[in-house]
Every structure is written in structure tokens, then in C-alpha cells.
Amino acid sequence: MYGRKVKLRFFFITFILLTLILSVFLVLKSLEENVVYFKSPSDVKLISELENKKIRIGGMVKKNSIEMSSNELNFIITDFKNEIYVTYSGVVPNLFSEGKGVVAEGYLKDRSFFNASKILAKHDENYMPPEVKEALGEK
User: Which homologous superfamily does the CATH classification assign to the domain defined by 37-121?
Assistant: First the structure.
């Protein structure tokens, strides 16, 4: 019923579509392992089961909550509704301080305690590192 050119064109278009779908599937599947989900302390309280997945918890560092020992940093992340206690061992970013935004990446011990493997301090677009500020002679 259809000519040879129409059949060839149909198979070519089908092959291209299947190749495209397969490549998108493979890219998404490989990225799935590297995706780290961001949650607030309120979201953590709603988690039904504690999985051994790496997550990011973000919020503000609660005032007067930072406790430093020789090799460990303990602080509280809050979203002003709920709080979560965070334990971290490692180098702390320069922007990390009380009352500032922070994102901690790591694993949940339970709904109230979080073991961070990485700390990411947030800043606004007006931030200028102290070294640059000094070099420019600004205060």
C-alpha cells in the first residue's frame, strides 16, 4: 500500500525517536545516583522512614547554637518552625555563622539529628570576600 520511500522514512523516524528516548533514559538513570534532595527541618520531621540516602538540609543557623570542640562542630539548623541538630567534622566555610543561611549535606541519624559530611554557607549577591574588600580598600 505504501511505497518504499514512505516505509524507509517511517523506519528512519522511528529509529531516531527510539534512539532519543533511550539516550534520555540512560542520562537520567546515570544522574539519579548523584541527585541530592534538599529538605527543610520541617520536611525532615515528615519523613515516614529513615533511609540511608544522602540528603541536604537547609535553613538558618540558630543563634547561640554553635558549639565547637577540637574536632567537631555542633549547631542547630532551623526553618523557624522546626529544628534539627547537626554534627560536622571538617573545615567550616568562612561565611558560616549564627543567623546566616546554611545547607548541610549528609545522612540522618533520626528525625532530630543529622550527621553532615559537607557544609555549604549561603550568601546574597552583595557579598564580597574580606580579601577582595581589603584589596579594594573598602570597609
Answer: Nucleic acid-binding proteins (2.40.50.140)
